[in-house]
Design goal:
Pathway: Isoprenoid biosynthesis; isopentenyl diphosphate biosynthesis via DXP pathway; isopentenyl diphosphate from 1-deoxy-D-xylulose 5-phosphate: step 2/6. The chain contains seven helices and eleven strands. It has helices spanning 32-41, 58-68, 84-92, 114-127, 169-182, 190-194, 216-227; strands at residues 3-8, 26-27, 30-31, 46-53, 75-79, 101-104, 129-135, 141-143, 149-152, 159-168, 201-204. The longest helix has 14 residues, at 114-127. It is globular. It binds cytidine-5'-triphosphate (CTP) and magnesium ion (MG). Residues 8-15, 22-23, 52, 80-84, 87, 106-108, 211, 213 line the site of cytidine-5'-triphosphate. Cytidine-5'-triphosphate binds at residues 8-15, 22-23, 52, 80-84, 87, 106-108, 211, 213.
Amino acid sequence: MRAVAIIPAAGRGERMRSDRPKVLTPIRGRPLLAWTLEPILGIDAFLEVFIAYPPGEEHVIGQVIGQDFPDELRVRLVHGGQTRQESVANCLARVPADIDLVAIHDGARPLLTKQLLLNVLECANETGAAIAAVPCKDSIKICNEEGTVTATLDREKLKLVQTPQCFRRELIVAAHEKAERDGYLGTDDSVLVERMGATVHVVMGSYENIKVTTPGDIILCEEVLRRRRL
Ligand code: CTP
Ligand code: MG
């Protein structure tokens, strides 16, 4: 299995309300991005790891990697795009044609474990497309602009989708190309694969595998990492 990882990390982190990029937020004395990279770089099957960086931050992202992973030779820094989808596409353009599998994981999800990543990767190796997701705990309702409920969705069928999302290289490349041709902008990568008519398999994710979005999420990360004794 010849695999690479792609880490979209080029967001501005507006909901964090910080003037620095979200992936540089310190957690237990290390930048958020270093925690995200730890389980990914722990997998030898990844021949290269592409990180989309926020415009203007290439130098500081390079410093983080040099400091936390000084012997690491597989990291490639790629200019981020206007949207997450564009950031992933910029990285995909750099993936060599002899690669079989591509793993995509949000830079903003620092509580990923190596085991979860391996589970999703293995499922994609067998099936072509796999994503991590967890059952929805709350009820989800569709509401209108007046703030009243118009429908309640069947919770049994609802999943909260996370990353990692792993795909055969040819499938995810074709899916991104089609999305660009159609002018379609999705909120994750698997929806682009669904639009190709391909089947996406769901692997049990983890409720701890949160996407750091608002300042309170940092406190949660600190506590989970403390419990993991990291
Ligand atoms: N991302 C990216 N390129 C963009 C926008 C987002 O690579 N143009 C990445 C983020 O860095 C993050 C992931 O996509 O790792 C998920 O995005 P999100 O959580 O929305 O992060 P931000 O866009 O940075 O946050 P916000 O929406 O609050 O500005
Ligand atoms: Mg965003």
